Amino acid sequence: MSIQGIRESIEQASQELGFSHFGWSPLQRPLSFEFYESWLQEGLHGDMKYLAEHAPTKAEPQIRWPRAQSALVFAIPYFPHPEPAATQKLSSARVSLYAQGMDYHFWFKERMTKLCSQLSEQFPGEEFLAFTDSSPILERDLARRAGLGWVGKNTCVIHPKKGSLFFIGEIYTSLQLTTDFEPLPDFCGTCTRCIDICPTGALLEPRKMDARKCISYLTIESRQLPEENLREAIGDWFFGCDLCQTVCPWNQKVFKGQLSIEKKTVLSEDQRTSLIKDMRYILTASGKQLSRDFLGTPLARAGSFGLKRNALIVSANQNLHELKVEIESLLEHEKLGELASWALSKI
Ligand code: B12
Ligand code: SF4
Ligand code: SF4
Question: 45 CA distance to ligand 3 centroid (A)?
């Protein structure tokens, strides 16, 4: 089948599977690999040790997938979320947009696997393997090479019409696909809104993040308590952060003014009552209850420790003194005790 043929079959499947845009690229060493290596050497990945372990395969995918020649790369927007969670356990906690639905690691991969089956029928004997996020693939570099967008100063891949609020997934294939996509030019220009808004100073310079300072890392990936000087800057973000994308001019068409760009939400009386209810539930629920309630959603990743840590920080930063008793009950907690005591000192 010609490249035109493969484009047509994917275009048809795209409608059904909800891809907003796609492209492809031969599998070569990522253009930004040297940057990635020096980023790791500076230790900017914090405790995400797997990023260093993944480096050799990221440079040469064939180490792990010897037949892989090319990658088909897909984007699915997460605003509005395509797979809303069946029940919403939290009504007012500030949760980043990508996490306000079911975990994309499952449903995005499932959608691409469906396409892999269709392609395997069209191309017998060829290999098709679907991935998103957790595999040793430098996805933003790949997306850029496949024409899905440019890498903005906030480090996200941005498309001039579709913004940056999309997940990236890919199908590795043994098909040799030459690309006819030109990487998109950088449209950031002189703008620095993302760098200016970042509450923790995580964007050190254009396209360079200190992940150890990013609220997304501190509230999701990290298994530690944040250093004291970062706790206040987290504000009311309970899980993840969207600020550097919310201010981006290229997302304004997507948001249509529906999102707040406040570093910390100024709460109405009703919002405050509802946030207290959310935080009380997190602070008092058992680990078992939390894993049952957040099963299949991104919030499960933080685990009971992470969710309670985040609730302590939000309660302190929003001065939820009504939760004093619940916070006190964590003072003797082996890992959270110090944070509980900090939270009490703030309210
Ligand atoms: C680790 C990780 C994080 C870390 C570190 C993020 C970071 N900026 O480094 C943390 C936990 C902080 C994080 C946060 C988020 N993440 Co994340 N994350 C990843 C993961 C697993 C690896 C990224 C990585 O290797 N980082 C190291 C840095 C150095 O690499 P990089 O950001 O990928 O950037 C490369 C290119 O941008 C390139 N580059 C930079 N400048 C230039 C210039 C040119 C010319 C070229 C060619 C390349 C280039 O250089 C870098 C190194 O090669 C990827 C999935 C994956 N397998 O790639 C998802 C991924 C990047 N995350 C994603 C998302 C959605 C998020 C959040 C929005 C979630 C949230 N709301 O909380 C935030 C966004 C915060 C932000 N501003 O980046 C999406 C990005 C989608 C997009 N449109 O860009 C990905 C691709 C997951 C997915 N499959 O959809 N994430
Ligand atoms: S996600 Fe939030 S904390 Fe992380 S770089 Fe963007 S604005 Fe800063
Ligand atoms: S906010 Fe401005 S500088 Fe940052 S990514 Fe968007 S356009 Fe680029």
Answer: 22
Protein residue with least CA distance to atom 90, ligand 1: 167
Q: What is the pLDDT of residue 1?
A: 58
Reported as a single tens digit per residue, the pLDDT across 204-224 is 999 999 999 999 999 999 999
Ligand whose nearest atom lies closest to the CA of 156:
1
Please tell me the distance from the alpha carbon of residue 206 to that of residue 187, in angstroms, as a whole number. 13
Tokens of 46: 């914090």
Which atom of ligand 3 has the smallest separation from the CA of 244? Answer: 1
Residues of the chain with pLDDT under 70: 1-2, 180-181
Angle separating helix axes 303-317 and 269-284, nearest 10 degrees:
150
| Residue (of 102, 103, 126, 101) closest to 116 by Cα position | 126
Among protein residues, the one with the nearest Cα to ligand 3's atom 5 is 152
pLDDT tens sequence across 17-28: 999 999 999 999
Active site residue 133: yes
Is the minimum distance from the CB of 198 to ligand 2 under 6 angstroms? yes
**Cα(11) to centroid of ligand 1, in Å?**
26
Q: In what order do the strands lie in the sheet containing 166-173? A: 21-26, 70-77, 166-173, 128-131
End-to-end C-alpha distance for the chain, whole angstroms: 66
Q: How far is the CA of 47 from the centre of ligand 3 (A)?
A: 27
Are the CB atoms for 308 and 316 separated by under 8 Å? no
Q: Residue 294 CA to chain centroid, in angstroms? A: 17
Name the pTM for this structure. Answer: 0.97
Identify the residue whose C-alpha is closest to ligand 1 atom 73: 216
What are the angstrom distances between the C-alpha of 260 and each of 94, 114, 197, 257, 333? 11, 36, 13, 8, 34
